[in-house]
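Budget justification aside, the reviewers requested a transparent look at the raw inputs and outputs of the sequence design task funded under Objective 1. We therefore reproduce one unedited record. The lines immediately below are the structure tokens for a 282-residue chain.
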């Protein structure tokens, strides 16, 4: 059996930078915290906990902390959270992905200029919540094509459309087209990070060629969910796993080609473990 491993599987630049930042801080003196899990991968979070790094679950919990270092996760946080960390006299280390930080700057500037911000992304996702927290006026979140079709805007402001960095690129283009067909005056800034586009394109190509596709990533990872959706459309036998322990495959002899990809928050050791297991056992 042949195994095709995606070249772009695993940590992206922003995640690698954030994880390395936390591990560096873990070796320093004093209490170390991350605001929310540093990335959406339970294995990484568990390992950091063993090293004394605690993930703050909420703003209320943040208010109870009197000393130490708070590392801002790769997804970013709202401006209000940044200010609260500073007011409490805590040391702040910002590990926000630079591509996410760029969106913060865009929505802050455009909303201050009087434009209505529209964020294409998953409502409730930490990255989207962080983006909303940098808008000077209330923003609108559009999550799906159906929501875009139903959307009605009665205001006179020009619309500024941005996207969650890990959103499905093709869906983003489709939603933008819906807004343009409605005749709205829009400025569109494609803020899907290039690594996401490349990863999704590669995953789609591999899934279209193989008999079985394995997608590895955290259960709460938005970008991994998107990879799974894309692969599932191309290959019916697509499996979403977090670690090798989740892999239960009984492959027929007719299976000759297996593809593997992984989300941006998946460590290389987990990818290698799955890849080696499939090569040896099937």
């Amino acid at each position: 059996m042949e195994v095709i491993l995606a070249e772009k599987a695993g940590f992206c630049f922003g995640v690698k930078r954030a994880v390395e930042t936390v591990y560096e801080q873990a070796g320093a003196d004093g209490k170390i915290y991350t605001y929310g899990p540093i990335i959406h991968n339970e294995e990484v979070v568990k390992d950091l906990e063993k090293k004394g790094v605690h993930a703050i679950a909420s703003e209320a919990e943040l208010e109870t902390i009197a000393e130490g270092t708070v590392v801002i996760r790769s997804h970013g946080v709202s401006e209000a959270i940044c200010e609260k960390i500073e007011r409490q006299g805590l040391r702040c280390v910002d590990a926000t992905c630079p591509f996410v930080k760029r969106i913060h700057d865009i929505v802050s500037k455009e909303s201050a200029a009087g434009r209505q911000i529209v964020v294409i992304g998953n409502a409730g996702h930490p990255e989207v919540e962080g983006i909303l927290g940098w808008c000077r006026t209330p923003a609108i979140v559009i999550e799906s094509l159906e929501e875009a079709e139903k959307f009605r805007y009665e205001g006179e402001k020009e619309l500024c459309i941005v996207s969650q960095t890990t959103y499905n690129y093709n869906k983003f283009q489709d939603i933008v087209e819906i807004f343009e067909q409605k005749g709205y005056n829009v400025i569109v800034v494609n803020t899907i990070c290039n690594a996401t586009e490349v990863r999704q394109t590669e995953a789609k190509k591999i899934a279209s060629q193989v008999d079985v596709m394995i997608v590895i990533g955290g259960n709460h990872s938005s970008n991994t969910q998107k990879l799974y959706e894309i692969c599932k459309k191309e290959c019916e036998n697509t499996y979403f796993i977090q670690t090798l322990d989740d892999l239960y495959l009984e492959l027929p002899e007719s299976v000759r080609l297996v593809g593997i990809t992984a989300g941006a928050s998946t460590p290389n050791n987990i990818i290698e473990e799955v890849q080696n297991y499939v090569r040896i056992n099937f």
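The chain is about 40% helix and 20% strand. The two ends are 7 Å apart (CA to CA). Computational costs for records of this kind are itemized in the attached budget.
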